[in-house]
Protein backbone atom coordinates (compact mmCIF):
# COMPACT_ATOMS: atom_id res chain seq x y z
CA UNK A 1 0.00 0.00 0.00
CA UNK A 2 2.80 2.39 0.84
CA UNK A 3 4.23 1.75 -2.63
CA UNK A 4 1.02 2.92 -4.22
CA UNK A 5 1.06 6.10 -2.18
CA UNK A 6 4.71 6.87 -2.83
CA UNK A 7 4.35 6.09 -6.52
CA UNK A 8 1.35 8.43 -6.75
CA UNK A 9 3.14 11.20 -4.90
CA UNK A 10 6.43 10.92 -6.80
CA UNK A 11 4.77 10.65 -10.20
CA UNK A 12 2.43 13.49 -9.33
CA UNK A 13 5.33 15.69 -8.33
CA UNK A 14 7.34 14.93 -11.46
CA UNK A 15 4.25 15.61 -13.59
CA UNK A 16 3.53 18.83 -11.75
CA UNK A 17 7.11 20.04 -12.21
CA UNK A 18 6.98 19.44 -15.95
CA UNK A 19 3.55 20.98 -16.40
CA UNK A 20 4.59 24.11 -14.52
CA UNK A 21 7.66 24.38 -16.72
CA UNK A 22 5.53 23.96 -19.84
CA UNK A 23 2.97 26.52 -18.68
CA UNK A 24 5.73 29.00 -17.99
CA UNK A 25 7.41 28.45 -21.37
CA UNK A 26 4.07 28.62 -23.17
CA UNK A 27 3.55 32.13 -21.84
CA UNK A 28 7.10 33.12 -22.72
CA UNK A 29 7.15 31.70 -26.22
CA UNK A 30 3.67 32.54 -27.45
CA UNK A 31 3.46 33.32 -31.15
CA UNK A 32 0.89 35.99 -31.95
CA UNK A 33 -1.27 34.92 -34.89
CA UNK A 34 -2.62 37.39 -37.37
CA UNK A 35 -6.40 37.64 -36.68
CA UNK A 36 -7.03 38.03 -40.40
CA UNK A 37 -5.99 34.44 -40.99
CA UNK A 38 -8.91 33.30 -38.89
CA UNK A 39 -11.30 35.69 -40.61
CA UNK A 40 -10.29 34.42 -44.04
CA UNK A 41 -10.48 30.86 -42.85
CA UNK A 42 -14.13 31.48 -41.99
CA UNK A 43 -14.83 32.81 -45.49
CA UNK A 44 -13.14 29.90 -47.26
CA UNK A 45 -15.24 26.80 -47.93
CA UNK A 46 -13.04 24.73 -45.62
CA UNK A 47 -12.94 21.69 -47.86
CA UNK A 48 -9.14 21.41 -47.84
CA UNK A 49 -9.39 20.22 -51.43
CA UNK A 50 -5.94 21.46 -52.40
CA UNK A 51 -6.98 22.94 -55.74
CA UNK A 52 -5.21 26.20 -54.90
CA UNK A 53 -1.87 24.47 -54.60
CA UNK A 54 -1.67 24.77 -50.81
CA UNK A 55 -2.03 21.82 -48.52
CA UNK A 56 -5.07 23.14 -46.68
CA UNK A 57 -7.40 26.11 -46.44
CA UNK A 58 -5.37 27.32 -43.48
CA UNK A 59 -2.11 27.24 -45.44
CA UNK A 60 -3.81 29.21 -48.22
CA UNK A 61 -5.17 31.76 -45.74
CA UNK A 62 -1.74 32.25 -44.21
CA UNK A 63 -0.15 32.62 -47.62
CA UNK A 64 -2.56 35.30 -48.84
CA UNK A 65 -2.34 37.27 -45.63
CA UNK A 66 1.39 37.46 -46.29
CA UNK A 67 1.12 38.07 -50.01
CA UNK A 68 -2.34 39.27 -51.18
CA UNK A 69 -1.40 38.90 -54.85
CA UNK A 70 -2.07 35.18 -54.50
CA UNK A 71 -5.82 35.67 -54.09
CA UNK A 72 -8.14 34.17 -56.65
CA UNK A 73 -7.02 30.63 -56.57
CA UNK A 74 -9.92 29.21 -54.57
CA UNK A 75 -11.84 27.24 -57.17
CA UNK A 76 -14.64 25.83 -55.02
CA UNK A 77 -15.34 29.29 -53.65
CA UNK A 78 -15.27 31.05 -56.97
CA UNK A 79 -15.15 34.79 -57.46
CA UNK A 80 -17.60 35.46 -54.61
CA UNK A 81 -15.15 34.18 -52.04
CA UNK A 82 -12.30 35.99 -53.74
CA UNK A 83 -14.15 39.29 -53.44
CA UNK A 84 -14.90 38.74 -49.78
CA UNK A 85 -11.27 37.92 -49.07
CA UNK A 86 -10.08 40.97 -50.97
CA UNK A 87 -12.43 43.08 -48.86
CA UNK A 88 -11.04 41.62 -45.64
CA UNK A 89 -7.51 42.29 -46.71
CA UNK A 90 -8.45 45.80 -47.82
CA UNK A 91 -7.36 45.20 -51.36
CA UNK A 92 -9.11 47.68 -53.65
CA UNK A 93 -8.17 46.35 -57.07
CA UNK A 94 -10.89 44.75 -59.07
CA UNK A 95 -10.72 41.03 -58.73
CA UNK A 96 -10.85 39.46 -62.13
CA UNK A 97 -13.90 37.27 -62.60
CA UNK A 98 -12.97 33.64 -62.75
CA UNK A 99 -13.95 32.13 -66.03
CA UNK A 100 -16.60 29.52 -65.49
CA UNK A 101 -15.33 26.06 -66.23
CA UNK A 102 -16.82 22.57 -66.11
CA UNK A 103 -15.14 19.23 -65.77
CA UNK A 104 -16.08 16.50 -68.22
CA UNK A 105 -14.96 12.92 -68.66
CA UNK A 106 -13.93 12.36 -72.26
CA UNK A 107 -14.90 8.73 -72.50
CA UNK A 108 -18.58 8.26 -73.15
CA UNK A 109 -18.61 4.52 -73.69
CA UNK A 110 -20.72 2.23 -71.55
CA UNK A 111 -19.85 -1.33 -70.64
CA UNK A 112 -21.64 -2.69 -73.71
CA UNK A 113 -19.70 -0.37 -76.04
CA UNK A 114 -16.25 -1.24 -74.77
CA UNK A 115 -14.89 -4.42 -76.24
CA UNK A 116 -12.60 -6.71 -74.39
CA UNK A 117 -10.69 -9.67 -75.76
CA UNK A 118 -9.45 -10.76 -72.36
CA UNK A 119 -10.56 -11.09 -68.76
CA UNK A 120 -8.98 -8.88 -66.14
CA UNK A 121 -8.50 -10.47 -62.73
CA UNK A 122 -6.15 -7.94 -61.17
CA UNK A 123 -6.74 -5.40 -58.43
CA UNK A 124 -10.01 -3.58 -58.81
CA UNK A 125 -8.65 -0.13 -59.43
CA UNK A 126 -7.82 1.89 -62.52
CA UNK A 127 -4.20 2.52 -61.56
CA UNK A 128 -3.36 -1.21 -61.49
CA UNK A 129 -5.40 -2.04 -64.54
CA UNK A 130 -3.74 0.76 -66.47
CA UNK A 131 -0.21 -0.46 -65.69
CA UNK A 132 -0.75 -3.87 -67.22
CA UNK A 133 -2.69 -2.60 -70.20
CA UNK A 134 -6.18 -2.43 -68.89
CA UNK A 135 -9.35 -4.40 -68.57
CA UNK A 136 -10.60 -3.19 -71.94
CA UNK A 137 -9.11 -3.20 -75.42
CA UNK A 138 -9.17 0.56 -75.84
CA UNK A 139 -5.94 1.92 -74.36
CA UNK A 140 -7.40 5.43 -74.10
CA UNK A 141 -10.78 4.76 -72.57
CA UNK A 142 -12.27 4.68 -69.09
CA UNK A 143 -11.45 1.54 -67.12
CA UNK A 144 -14.45 2.09 -64.91
CA UNK A 145 -13.08 0.98 -61.54
CA UNK A 146 -13.78 4.38 -60.05
CA UNK A 147 -10.46 5.82 -58.88
CA UNK A 148 -12.02 9.19 -59.66
CA UNK A 149 -15.12 8.41 -57.62
CA UNK A 150 -12.92 7.62 -54.65
CA UNK A 151 -10.91 10.84 -54.66
CA UNK A 152 -13.85 13.14 -55.34
CA UNK A 153 -14.39 15.16 -52.16
CA UNK A 154 -17.84 16.31 -53.29
CA UNK A 155 -19.29 12.90 -54.18
CA UNK A 156 -20.06 14.36 -57.58
CA UNK A 157 -18.92 11.34 -59.55
CA UNK A 158 -21.02 8.25 -60.04
CA UNK A 159 -20.26 5.27 -62.24
CA UNK A 160 -23.04 3.42 -63.98
CA UNK A 161 -22.31 0.63 -66.45
CA UNK A 162 -18.63 1.53 -66.32
CA UNK A 163 -19.37 5.05 -67.51
CA UNK A 164 -18.60 8.17 -65.49
CA UNK A 165 -21.35 10.64 -64.72
CA UNK A 166 -20.45 13.98 -63.16
CA UNK A 167 -23.01 15.87 -61.13
CA UNK A 168 -22.16 19.39 -62.21
CA UNK A 169 -24.14 20.88 -59.34
CA UNK A 170 -21.94 19.19 -56.78
CA UNK A 171 -18.61 19.54 -58.62
CA UNK A 172 -16.53 22.47 -57.44
CA UNK A 173 -13.61 22.00 -59.81
CA UNK A 174 -10.96 20.92 -57.35
CA UNK A 175 -9.28 18.91 -60.07
CA UNK A 176 -8.55 15.84 -57.99
CA UNK A 177 -10.11 13.50 -60.54
CA UNK A 178 -7.89 14.99 -63.23
CA UNK A 179 -4.86 13.85 -61.28
CA UNK A 180 -6.34 10.53 -60.21
CA UNK A 181 -7.31 9.21 -63.64
CA UNK A 182 -4.39 7.21 -65.05
CA UNK A 183 -5.74 7.76 -68.55
CA UNK A 184 -6.13 11.52 -68.20
CA UNK A 185 -9.78 11.44 -69.19
CA UNK A 186 -10.97 14.40 -67.15
CA UNK A 187 -10.78 17.69 -68.97
CA UNK A 188 -11.70 21.15 -67.87
CA UNK A 189 -13.63 22.94 -70.57
CA UNK A 190 -15.03 26.47 -70.55
CA UNK A 191 -18.74 26.52 -69.73
CA UNK A 192 -20.46 27.70 -72.87
CA UNK A 193 -23.92 28.49 -71.64
CA UNK A 194 -25.19 26.80 -74.80
CA UNK A 195 -25.26 23.27 -73.52
CA UNK A 196 -21.62 22.36 -72.89
CA UNK A 197 -20.64 20.26 -75.87
CA UNK A 198 -17.61 18.02 -75.73
CA UNK A 199 -16.08 15.04 -77.52
CA UNK A 200 -16.70 12.00 -75.34
CA UNK A 201 -13.78 10.03 -76.71
CA UNK A 202 -10.02 10.28 -76.50
CA UNK A 203 -8.99 7.51 -78.85
CA UNK A 204 -6.25 8.68 -81.20
CA UNK A 205 -6.21 5.57 -83.36
CA UNK A 206 -7.59 5.20 -86.87
CA UNK A 207 -10.91 3.84 -87.99
CA UNK A 208 -10.27 0.10 -87.81
CA UNK A 209 -8.44 0.08 -84.49
CA UNK A 210 -11.12 2.26 -82.97
CA UNK A 211 -13.92 0.09 -84.31
CA UNK A 212 -12.21 -3.02 -82.94
CA UNK A 213 -11.95 -1.56 -79.47
CA UNK A 214 -15.16 0.37 -78.99
CA UNK A 215 -18.43 1.03 -80.73
CA UNK A 216 -18.67 4.63 -79.53
CA UNK A 217 -15.19 5.82 -80.40
CA UNK A 218 -14.33 8.76 -82.60
CA UNK A 219 -13.30 7.24 -85.91
CA UNK A 220 -11.95 10.49 -87.30
CA UNK A 221 -14.41 10.53 -90.17
CA UNK A 222 -14.51 14.31 -90.12
CA UNK A 223 -18.25 14.62 -90.69
CA UNK A 224 -18.59 17.06 -87.80
CA UNK A 225 -15.92 19.33 -89.29
CA UNK A 226 -17.86 19.66 -92.53
CA UNK A 227 -20.90 21.29 -90.94
CA UNK A 228 -21.29 24.91 -91.90
CA UNK A 229 -19.44 27.21 -89.50
CA UNK A 230 -18.17 24.20 -87.65
CA UNK A 231 -16.07 24.76 -84.53
CA UNK A 232 -14.95 21.13 -84.77
CA UNK A 233 -11.53 20.19 -86.04
CA UNK A 234 -9.56 16.98 -86.38
CA UNK A 235 -6.33 16.69 -84.42
CA UNK A 236 -4.47 13.37 -84.10
CA UNK A 237 -7.39 11.37 -85.49
CA UNK A 238 -9.67 12.85 -82.89
CA UNK A 239 -12.32 15.49 -83.22
CA UNK A 240 -11.90 18.56 -81.04
CA UNK A 241 -13.99 21.60 -80.34
CA UNK A 242 -12.30 24.92 -80.69
CA UNK A 243 -14.08 26.68 -77.84
CA UNK A 244 -12.85 30.12 -78.88
CA UNK A 245 -14.84 29.88 -82.08
CA UNK A 246 -18.10 28.77 -80.53
CA UNK A 247 -20.69 31.44 -81.15
CA UNK A 248 -23.97 29.69 -81.43
CA UNK A 249 -25.44 26.35 -80.75
CA UNK A 250 -26.50 25.37 -84.24
CA UNK A 251 -23.26 23.99 -85.77
CA UNK A 252 -22.47 22.27 -82.48
CA UNK A 253 -25.83 20.54 -82.38
CA UNK A 254 -25.67 19.64 -86.03
CA UNK A 255 -22.22 18.12 -85.64
CA UNK A 256 -23.49 16.14 -82.71
CA UNK A 257 -26.51 14.78 -84.50
CA UNK A 258 -24.50 13.83 -87.58
CA UNK A 259 -21.80 11.96 -85.70
CA UNK A 260 -22.09 8.31 -86.85
CA UNK A 261 -20.73 6.85 -83.61
CA UNK A 262 -22.53 9.28 -81.29
CA UNK A 263 -19.35 10.25 -79.54
CA UNK A 264 -20.20 13.94 -79.18
CA UNK A 265 -21.93 14.58 -75.91
CA UNK A 266 -23.58 17.56 -74.27
CA UNK A 267 -25.49 18.46 -71.15
CA UNK B 1 37.61 8.07 -21.35
CA UNK B 2 38.27 5.16 -23.62
CA UNK B 3 34.83 3.75 -22.85
CA UNK B 4 33.18 7.07 -23.69
CA UNK B 5 34.80 7.19 -27.10
CA UNK B 6 33.86 3.59 -27.71
CA UNK B 7 30.23 4.29 -26.80
CA UNK B 8 30.25 7.38 -29.01
CA UNK B 9 31.54 5.63 -32.11
CA UNK B 10 29.67 2.38 -31.71
CA UNK B 11 26.34 4.11 -31.11
CA UNK B 12 26.69 6.24 -34.23
CA UNK B 13 28.04 3.66 -36.66
CA UNK B 14 27.78 0.13 -35.40
CA UNK B 15 24.63 0.07 -33.33
CA UNK B 16 22.90 2.86 -35.19
CA UNK B 17 19.42 3.29 -33.71
CA UNK B 18 17.71 3.51 -37.07
CA UNK B 19 19.56 1.05 -39.23
CA UNK B 20 20.42 -1.73 -36.83
CA UNK B 21 17.70 -1.43 -34.17
CA UNK B 22 14.88 -0.30 -36.52
CA UNK B 23 13.93 2.47 -34.14
CA UNK B 24 12.56 5.80 -35.29
CA UNK B 25 11.76 4.62 -38.82
CA UNK B 26 8.71 6.87 -39.12
CA UNK B 27 10.46 10.27 -39.19
CA UNK B 28 13.41 8.64 -40.95
CA UNK B 29 11.19 7.88 -43.93
CA UNK B 30 8.73 10.73 -43.52
CA UNK B 31 10.97 13.76 -43.20
CA UNK B 32 13.90 12.68 -45.35
CA UNK B 33 12.51 14.24 -48.54
CA UNK B 34 14.27 17.57 -48.18
CA UNK B 35 17.75 18.19 -46.81
CA UNK B 36 16.74 21.27 -44.83
CA UNK B 37 13.91 19.64 -42.93
CA UNK B 38 15.90 16.42 -42.47
CA UNK B 39 18.69 18.35 -40.82
CA UNK B 40 16.16 20.20 -38.65
CA UNK B 41 14.53 16.93 -37.68
CA UNK B 42 17.91 15.36 -36.93
CA UNK B 43 18.89 18.30 -34.73
CA UNK B 44 15.57 18.24 -32.90
CA UNK B 45 15.86 14.50 -32.25
CA UNK B 46 19.48 14.86 -31.13
CA UNK B 47 18.52 17.62 -28.75
CA UNK B 48 15.52 15.77 -27.34
CA UNK B 49 17.43 12.50 -27.10
CA UNK B 50 20.40 13.97 -25.25
CA UNK B 51 18.24 15.86 -22.80
CA UNK B 52 15.75 13.04 -22.39
CA UNK B 53 18.48 10.51 -21.64
CA UNK B 54 20.21 12.80 -19.13
CA UNK B 55 17.02 13.78 -17.32
CA UNK B 56 15.76 10.20 -17.40
CA UNK B 57 19.05 9.06 -15.84
CA UNK B 58 18.74 11.63 -13.08
CA UNK B 59 15.13 10.75 -12.34
CA UNK B 60 15.77 7.02 -12.58
CA UNK B 61 18.75 6.83 -10.25
CA UNK B 62 18.07 9.74 -7.91
CA UNK B 63 14.32 9.35 -7.49
CA UNK B 64 12.90 6.08 -8.75
CA UNK B 65 15.64 3.79 -7.51
CA UNK B 66 15.86 5.49 -4.14
CA UNK B 67 12.15 5.04 -3.48
CA UNK B 68 12.03 1.58 -5.02
CA UNK B 69 9.75 2.70 -7.84
CA UNK B 70 11.69 1.28 -10.77
CA UNK B 71 8.45 -0.09 -12.24
CA UNK B 72 7.47 3.49 -13.06
CA UNK B 73 10.34 3.88 -15.53
CA UNK B 74 8.33 3.67 -18.75
CA UNK B 75 5.68 6.15 -17.82
CA UNK B 76 8.18 8.57 -16.31
CA UNK B 77 10.45 8.39 -19.34
CA UNK B 78 7.50 9.00 -21.62
CA UNK B 79 6.51 11.98 -19.50
CA UNK B 80 10.04 13.39 -19.77
CA UNK B 81 10.18 12.87 -23.53
CA UNK B 82 6.72 14.32 -24.15
CA UNK B 83 7.48 17.44 -22.15
CA UNK B 84 10.80 17.96 -23.89
CA UNK B 85 9.20 17.59 -27.31
CA UNK B 86 6.60 20.14 -26.32
CA UNK B 87 9.35 22.55 -25.31
CA UNK B 88 11.29 21.97 -28.52
CA UNK B 89 8.12 22.55 -30.52
CA UNK B 90 7.50 25.86 -28.77
CA UNK B 91 11.04 26.98 -29.49
CA UNK B 92 10.92 26.00 -33.15
CA UNK B 93 7.52 27.63 -33.66
CA UNK B 94 8.81 30.81 -32.14
CA UNK B 95 12.16 31.03 -33.87
CA UNK B 96 11.79 29.23 -37.19
CA UNK B 97 8.35 29.18 -38.80
CA UNK B 98 9.71 27.57 -41.96
CA UNK B 99 11.23 24.65 -40.12
CA UNK B 100 8.05 24.36 -38.06
CA UNK B 101 5.95 24.02 -41.21
CA UNK B 102 8.25 21.64 -43.00
CA UNK B 103 8.47 19.32 -39.99
CA UNK B 104 4.69 19.41 -39.71
CA UNK B 105 3.11 16.46 -37.96
CA UNK B 106 6.49 14.75 -37.52
CA UNK B 107 7.56 17.19 -34.84
CA UNK B 108 4.92 16.10 -32.30
CA UNK B 109 5.53 12.55 -33.48
CA UNK B 110 8.99 12.73 -31.87
CA UNK B 111 7.00 12.22 -28.68
CA UNK B 112 6.24 8.69 -29.64
CA UNK B 113 9.51 8.22 -31.50
CA UNK B 114 10.62 4.82 -30.30
CA UNK B 115 14.26 5.73 -30.91
CA UNK B 116 14.19 8.17 -28.00
CA UNK B 117 12.39 5.91 -25.55
CA UNK B 118 14.58 3.07 -26.81
CA UNK B 119 17.80 4.93 -26.09
CA UNK B 120 16.54 5.93 -22.64
CA UNK B 121 15.71 2.31 -21.84
CA UNK B 122 18.98 0.95 -23.25
CA UNK B 123 20.77 3.39 -20.99
CA UNK B 124 19.19 1.63 -18.01
CA UNK B 125 19.76 -1.88 -19.36
CA UNK B 126 23.42 -1.19 -20.06
CA UNK B 127 23.94 0.24 -16.57
CA UNK B 128 25.67 3.42 -17.73
CA UNK B 129 27.06 6.11 -15.44
CA UNK B 130 25.66 9.62 -15.88
CA UNK B 131 28.44 10.79 -18.20
CA UNK B 132 28.19 7.63 -20.26
CA UNK B 133 24.43 8.04 -20.49
CA UNK B 134 24.77 11.61 -21.75
CA UNK B 135 27.31 10.54 -24.38
CA UNK B 136 25.08 7.60 -25.30
CA UNK B 137 22.03 9.83 -25.76
CA UNK B 138 23.98 12.42 -27.73
CA UNK B 139 25.61 9.89 -30.04
CA UNK B 140 22.31 8.07 -30.51
CA UNK B 141 20.83 11.36 -31.70
CA UNK B 142 23.84 12.07 -33.90
CA UNK B 143 23.53 8.62 -35.42
CA UNK B 144 19.88 9.34 -36.25
CA UNK B 145 20.85 12.75 -37.64
CA UNK B 146 23.63 11.26 -39.78
CA UNK B 147 21.41 8.61 -41.28
CA UNK B 148 18.47 10.92 -41.98
CA UNK B 149 20.78 13.47 -43.63
CA UNK B 150 22.40 10.79 -45.82
CA UNK B 151 18.92 9.59 -46.73
CA UNK B 152 17.77 13.11 -47.59
CA UNK B 153 20.86 13.63 -49.75
CA UNK B 154 20.17 10.45 -51.68
CA UNK B 155 16.46 11.19 -52.06
CA UNK B 156 17.11 14.71 -53.31
CA UNK B 157 19.35 13.29 -56.01
CA UNK B 158 16.82 10.61 -56.87
CA UNK B 159 14.25 13.33 -57.60
CA UNK B 160 16.15 14.04 -60.81
CA UNK B 161 16.76 10.44 -61.75
CA UNK B 162 14.69 8.78 -64.40
CA UNK B 163 13.18 5.92 -62.44
CA UNK B 164 10.36 3.55 -63.41
CA UNK B 165 6.97 4.89 -62.45
CA UNK B 166 6.06 2.00 -60.17
CA UNK B 167 9.16 2.59 -58.04
CA UNK B 168 8.38 6.24 -57.42
CA UNK B 169 7.63 7.34 -53.88
CA UNK B 170 7.45 4.86 -51.03
CA UNK B 171 8.90 1.78 -52.79
CA UNK B 172 12.11 3.51 -53.76
CA UNK B 173 12.42 5.12 -50.33
CA UNK B 174 12.16 1.74 -48.64
CA UNK B 175 14.65 0.16 -51.04
CA UNK B 176 17.08 3.01 -50.41
CA UNK B 177 16.69 2.52 -46.66
CA UNK B 178 17.38 -1.18 -47.07
CA UNK B 179 20.57 -0.58 -49.03
CA UNK B 180 21.68 1.98 -46.44
CA UNK B 181 21.14 -0.60 -43.70
CA UNK B 182 23.22 -3.11 -45.68
CA UNK B 183 26.03 -0.58 -45.89
CA UNK B 184 25.89 0.20 -42.18
CA UNK B 185 26.11 -3.52 -41.42
CA UNK B 186 29.60 -3.24 -42.84
CA UNK B 187 30.64 -1.28 -39.78
CA UNK B 188 29.83 -4.15 -37.45
CA UNK B 189 33.42 -5.45 -37.48
CA UNK B 190 34.77 -2.05 -36.49
CA UNK B 191 34.89 -2.58 -32.74
CA UNK B 192 37.05 -5.65 -33.15
CA UNK B 193 34.26 -8.05 -32.36
Helix coverage percent of chain B = over 70%
Tally of DSSP helical segments of chain B: 9
What's the shape of chain B?
globular
How many beta-strand segments of chain B? Answer: 0
Number of helices of chain A: 9
Q: Report the sheet-strand fraction of chain B.
A: under 5%
User: Any idea what the shape of chain A is?
Assistant: elongated
Largest sheet composition of chain A: 2 strands, antiparallel
CATH architecture of the largest domain in chain A: 2-Layer Sandwich
Tally of strands of chain A: 8
Largest interface: A-B, 16 and 21 residues
Mean pLDDT of chain B: 87
Radius of gyration of chain A: 27 Å
How is the main sheet of chain B built? none
Structural class of chain A: alpha+beta
Written as H for each helix and E for each strand, in order along the chain, the element string of chain B is HHHHHHHHH
Explained architecture:
The complex is a heterodimer of chains A (267) and B (193). Chain A has 9 helices and 8 strands. Chain A starts with a helix and ends with a strand. With 267 residues, chain A is of the alpha+beta class. Chain A folds into 2 domains: 35-89, Orthogonal Bundle (3-methyladenine DNA Glycosylase II, Chain A, domain 3), CATH 1.10.15.40; 101-266, Alpha-Beta Plaits (2-Layer Sandwich), CATH 3.30.70.20. In chain A, helix 2 crosses helix 3. The mean pLDDT of chain A is 82. Chain A has helices at residues 2-28, 35-43, 57-66, 78-89, 126-131, 147-151, 176-180, 207-213, 249-258, and strands at 101-105, 157-160, 163-166, 186-190, 197-199, 232-235, 238-241, 264-266. Chain B has 193 residues and is mainly alpha-helical. Chain B has one domain. Chain B has helices spanning 2-14, 25-30, 35-64, 73-95, 97-103, 106-109, 114-125, 130-158, 170-185. In chain B, helix 1 (2-14) packs parallel to helix 8 (130-158). The longest helix of chain B is centred in the N-terminal third of the chain and has 30 residues, at 35-64.
Amino acid sequence: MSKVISATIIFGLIGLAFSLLLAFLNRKLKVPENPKVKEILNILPGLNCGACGFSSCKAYAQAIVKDPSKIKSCRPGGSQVDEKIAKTLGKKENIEQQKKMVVVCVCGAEAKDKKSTHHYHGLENCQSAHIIGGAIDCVYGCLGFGDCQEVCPADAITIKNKKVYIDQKKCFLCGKCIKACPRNLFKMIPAQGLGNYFIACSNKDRLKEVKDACSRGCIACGICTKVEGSPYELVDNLSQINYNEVENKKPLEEGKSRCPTKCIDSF
Amino acid sequence: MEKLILIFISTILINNVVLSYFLGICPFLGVSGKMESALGMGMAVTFVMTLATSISWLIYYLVLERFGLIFLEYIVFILVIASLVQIVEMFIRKYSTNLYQSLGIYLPLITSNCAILGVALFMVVKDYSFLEAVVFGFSGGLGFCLVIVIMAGIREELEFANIPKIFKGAPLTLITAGILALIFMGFSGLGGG
